[in-house]
Amino acid sequence: MKVSIDMGSGPGGKPAELDLEELLATRLLVQGNSGSGKSHLLRRLLEQSAPWVQQAVIDPEGDFVTLADRFGHVVVEAADHTEAALQRIASRVREHRVSVVLNLEGLDSEAQMRAAASFLGGLFDADRDLWYPMLVVVDEAQLFAPAAAGEVSDEARKVSLGAMTNLMCRGRKRGLAGVIATQRLAKLAKNVAAEASNFLMGRTFLDIDMARAADLLGMERRQAEMFRDLERGHFVALGPAMARRPLPVRIGDVETAPRAGSPKLLPLPDTPEDARALIMVPGEPEPSALPAIPRRPPAPPPMSTTEVLMQLARSRPAAAPAESEPEGDPEERDRRLDAILREVLADPDAAFRTVAVLYQDFLVRCRIHAVGGRPPDMPDFRRRLAAARAGVAAGADDTPEWERATAAASGLPDDIQGVFLLLARAALDGAPCPSDHVIARACGSRSAGRARRLLSYLEQRDVLVTRSDRGGRRIVTLPGLGWETAPGDPNAADPDAEGDALAAAG
After folding, report:
1. What angle do CA 412, 414, 419 make, to 5 degrees?
2. Burial letters 28-39, b for 16+ CB under 10 A, else e
3. Average pLDDT value for residue range 49-62
4. Which of 98, 181, 241, 447 could cross-link to 125 by cystine, CB 3.0-4.6 Å?
5. How far apart, in whole angstroms, are the C-alpha atoms of residue 380 and residue 370?
6. What's the average model confidence in pLDDT over 101-106?
7. CA–CA separation, 349 vs 448, rounded Å?
8. For residue 388, what pLDDT band results from cuts at 50, 70 and 90?
């Protein structure tokens, strides 16, 4: 079914229509300086398409929350939820096909990036059965997919950029159609901008931005000057969803308005006679006299390198044996390390954090508990983490059977070892095969679809064999070990996840 969205008027007053079905397949990029009408354009698109397609708006300034009153969007206040909760909310959004506005207002730049990445990740990781068409609008996209590193941490930038790349590069097959708006193309990561096939270019002044906009629209460089003369709300459109040739478009009116409009000029009030007294009201009593600020003596001239080395040699104390806390009994130390790791994993969100973050938390807890000796390095921590996620009790890894399992897992990628050991633990104990949700949790995800894809990946590489009994329950065989799990329901819920949800609700 073809649905045409009225975006406004084109040359000669003709309607400027946008093919919604084509837009869902080809994505859209909007560029314009501040005040050019980008938010107005996005609002027009959201209002016109609201009856036809599910929508999700990443709103850094809280401009689009008013859509809730007119069109029933659910406003999600990012400041009130953790990253894990936002990921769960996004999954439910796809399940129930509800249009939402993720309000990031009030968060700093890094928190906005992390919250948006978690929410987009939840939309992206939804099960295949929930891949319904969805319009995902990201305003001020340069904040979430910056072309260069800024003041935020590298980890936050990497996570946010990865989520935006997934949206624009791989989201189409999952029903996600990205619509991104940016003030400057030069500030937006190229691999994100390059995936859009439809463009709406508004007013811009810098030569580099005008030249890039002209290149994207297939215009000659001498025509790039026209972008300086565009009025507010006027754009040049190009793409299969709107026009095969550059088309001037004037965006039409909207039904809703942002919570706070642009500041308006107002005449100043009459100056009161006591204006000076009003602004010079004394505050808290001040000390009668400020303490004198001591003058610092002039800094001595810097010493030469030779003088510094001689001074260090004279002041160096006699060599003494290095003081370090004794390790004590190795078995007792291992038990303490396992107990600390269980403390780390007891956090409901620990299953969905990166290994690097968990390792830092583990090292801090080792210092708090005064564990003697050198702490485990990263490879040793990964091995312990995989065993802990597999549900291995303390001391179980000393048995010959489990040593075979760990040796077989060592040849697998780090993020898969935990899943293999989880299945090996169940097979060794004769327990039922873990469900998709339990397997997903072991690899740091909430997506049951990811768990199924991971099992298929392992089966293609002859690591395991899956089959079903007459009741549809799954059985996993590990040929390299000669072990087999008992039948288990692949669709059973994760009891740990249910406990987390009940705790969050309480």
Report:
1. 75
2. bbbbbbeebbbb
3. 93
4. 447
5. 19
6. 92
7. 17
8. confident
| Reported confidence tier of residue 292, pLDDT bands at 50, 70, 90 | low
How big is the CA angle at 248 (ends 242 and 18), to the nearest 5 degrees?
20
The model's confidence at residue 502, banded by pLDDT at 50, 70 and 90, is very low
**Residue boundaries of the structural domains of the chain:** 4-251, 330-505
What lies within 8 Å, CB to CB, of 494 at 6+ separation is 435, 437, 438, 440, 441
**18: confidence class by pLDDT, cuts 50, 70, 90:** very high
Rounded to 10°, the helix 355-368/330-345 angle is 120
Name the residue with tokens 């030779």: 306
So what's the pLDDT on residue 498? Answer: 47
3-state secondary structure of 181: strand
Radius of gyration of the chain (CA): 30
| CA-to-CA separations, 179 to 54, 63, 133, 185, 268, in angstroms, rounded | 13, 16, 13, 14, 42
Cα–Cα dist 453/125, whole Å: 12
CA atoms lying within 13 Å on the CB side of residue 383: 16
| 287 vs 203 pLDDT, higher one | 203
3-class secondary-structure state, position 237: strand
Q: Are 397 and 406 in contact (CB under 8 A)?
A: yes
Residues 152/154/156/157 CA torsion (nearest 10 deg)? 90
**Tokens (6 digits) for 388:** 């802990």
Six-digit token string for 319:
């060599």
| pTM higher than the cut 0.70 | no
- pLDDT above 60: residue 234: yes
Residue type, 413: P
Give the CA angle between residues 451, 452, 454 to the nearest 5°: 65
Distance CA 9, CA 404 (A): 71
d(CA 128, CA 174): 7
Residue 458 contacts residue 402 (beta carbons within 8 Å): no
CATH, domain 4-251, list 2.60.40.2140, 3.40.50.300, 3.30.300.70, 3.40.50.620: 3.40.50.300
How wide is the angle at C-alpha 455 spanned by C-alphas 451 and 459, nearest 5°? 170
CA-angle at 464, arms to 121 and 457, nearest 5°: 35
3-state SS of 107-156 is CCHHHHHHHHHHHHHHHHCCCHHHCCCEEEEECCHHHCCECCCCCCCHHH
Grouping H, G, I as helix, E, B as strand and the rest as coil, residue 92 is: helix
Tokens of 283: 């505050």
Rounded Cα distance, 74 and 135, in Å: 15
User: pLDDT tens across 303-326, in order?
Assistant: 666 565 566 555 545 444 434 445
Beta-carbon contacts of 363 under 8 Å, excluding residues fewer than 6 positions away, are 375
